Amino acid sequence: MAAQRKTSRYVVPVAVAGIAAATIGLVPALAASGDPDLPEITAQQLIEKIAASDTQTLSGTFKVSTDLGLPAFDGLLGGLAGGAAQGEGEGSADPAAQLTKLVSGTHTLKIAADGPERQKLTLLDGKEQYSLVHNGDEVWAYDSRSNEVFHEKGVDGGPGEDAPAPEKELPASPKDLADEVLKAAGDTTSITVGGTANVAGRDAYRLVIEPKQQGSTVDAITIAVDAATGTPLKFTLDSTSGGKPVLDAGFTKVDFGRPAASEFDFTVPKGAKVTEGDDVEASHKDVEKDLEKEFGGLGDLGLGGAGGFGEGDVNVIGEGWTSIARFDSGAPAPKTDEAPKEVQGFLDSLGEKVSGKFGSGTVFKTKIVNALMTDDGKVYVGAVTPEALVDAANAAK
Question: Does the pTM exceed 0.90?
Answer without folding.
Answer: no
